[in-house]
Amino acid sequence: QVQLVESGGGLVQPGGSLILSCAASGTIFSIDVMGWYRQAPGKERELVAVINSGGSANYADSVKGRFTISRDNAKNLVYLRMNSLKPLDTAVYYCNALGSSSSRSSGRFDSWGQGTQVTVSS
Fold first, then answer.
1. Which of 56, 83, 85, 88 is the one with CA 20 to 30 A from 10?
2. 25, pLDDT greater than 90
């Protein structure tokens, strides 16, 4: 079992910045991919950014150039720096991790955090 805990959400003005953090814990052999998703009221959950163990990242078009995802493999942490925030960025942000709990192929996990609220408003 792998647990993810997000932190860093809050209220920020348009154009402001915020950094989200996610810590993974539990039985972890390796984490292949970590990512951030978000869900706004009345909308479907969407991918924001993902990053693999080598540091290669992909972003949703809506956040490219504004958000930066990074990770600390040794500490099982992933971060999301959000710059130039817009009201449309308002959502609950969820951390996700894909990896292995053991060397066995059957020991894969797909874990999610509880979410952290980000509100962008003046």
1. 56
2. yes
